[in-house]
Design goal:
single chain, about 140 residues, alpha+beta, 4-stranded antiparallel sheet, 2 helices, about 20% helix, elongated
């Protein structure tokens, strides 16, 4: 049976919105057939700007602004029919949180026996090997 792994990367600017993401992950753990890992923290992204306070008299006086992007990663693993139902319901689950940026990656893994057969290979015997006569017949 094929398995599916879904990576949901959530980014936002406010820590309070991530409590909602934690509640979402906790509610997903109750769904039968889904293995939920996370939310795992990812590195924060810092963006800084420096602006002059006054263009004329106080030229050396500056003001610095900083924007911090907080990220979390939720991994969900399950069989294909269950994860399909989850993917259809995901926009409705995230609709109350428009301030969150969401990226979803879906990976599907099939069993290797679907592509390869693991039959034992028969060892070659001397009768199976063809012996070719490699004599030069033009030289006669």
């Amino acid at each position: 049976m094929a398995r599916r792994l879904i990576d949901i990367s959530v980014a936002g600017y406010d820590k309070r919105t991530f409590t909602a993401v934690e509640r979402l992950a906790a509610s997903l753990k109750l769904i039968d057939g889904l293995n939920v890992m996370g939310p795992n923290p990812l590195p924060k992204q810092y963006r800084k700007w420096t602006v002059n306070r006054s263009p004329f008299v106080d030229k050396k006086s500056r003001e610095t602004f900083e924007l911090v992007t907080i990220k979390r990663l939720i991994k969900i693993e399950g069989d294909v029919p269950t994860t399909n139902k989850f993917l259809k319901a995901l926009p409705d689950l995230l609709a109350p949180y428009p301030e969150l940026g969401t990226r979803v990656n879906v990976h599907t893994f099939s069993p290797i026996t679907r592509y390869y057969s693991f039959q034992p290979v028969k060892k070659a015997t001397p009768e199976d090997i063809l012996v070719l006569d490699v004599t030069n017949k033009k030289g006669k």
